[in-house]
Amino acid sequence: MCELLQNVTLFSVLAIAIGAVPGALSRYYLTEFCKRAIGTNFPYGTFIINFTGCLLMGFFFTLFKGIKGFPPEIDLLVRTGFLGAYTTFSTYGYDTLTLWRNGKQGATIFYWAGSAMLAVIGIVLGSYLAKGIVG
Questions:
Q1: CA–CA separation, 108 vs 120, rounded Å?
Q2: Residue 87 to residues 36, 43, 80, 104: CA-CA distances in angstroms?
Q3: How far apart are the C-alpha atoms of 129 and 103, rounded to whole Å?
Q4: What is the pTM assigned to this prediction?
């Protein structure tokens, strides 16, 4: 375990931490906004966050990979820190079970399958958008 940590720099740890704070806050505020604006009978916030998180993951992965000499710490800040705190897979699982237990089987299936499909679509779309920038 100690050998694995030898390559971890303080700068890398700080990059992840600095990215995680705005990621978590963005998740919280977007979830609250969706509850107030759209309602609470479906987990709209988590649904939107998981799609946009996947879109951003695909976009930034492709963008960063396409830039020679791109600093790995920025990648850690954005993809591990921000997006790691922003996306909500555990909440997705919880919300799926809650919908099911509340007798909303149709909404459960839509949410469960729709989230998975939008995740893949988001990754592909984000990658496509970044390729337009880096070629």
A1: 19
A2: 20, 14, 10, 24
A3: 39
A4: 0.81
How many domains is the chain partitioned into structurally?
A: 1
Contact yes or no for 24/85 (Cβ under 8 A): yes
Residue 87 annotated in ligand binding: yes
The one-letter amino acid at 57: M
Q: How far apart are CA 48 and CA 46, in angstroms?
A: 5
pLDDT one-digit tens code per residue, 66-86: 999 999 999 999 999 999 999
Check whether 80 is labelled as a binding-site residue.
no
DSSP 66-122: TSTT--HHHHIIIIIIIHHHH--HHHHHHHHHHHHHTT-HHHHHHHHHHHHHHHHHH
Q: Which pair of structure tokens corresponds to residue 123?
A: 């990754």
Residue 58 near residue 20, CB atoms below 8 Å: no
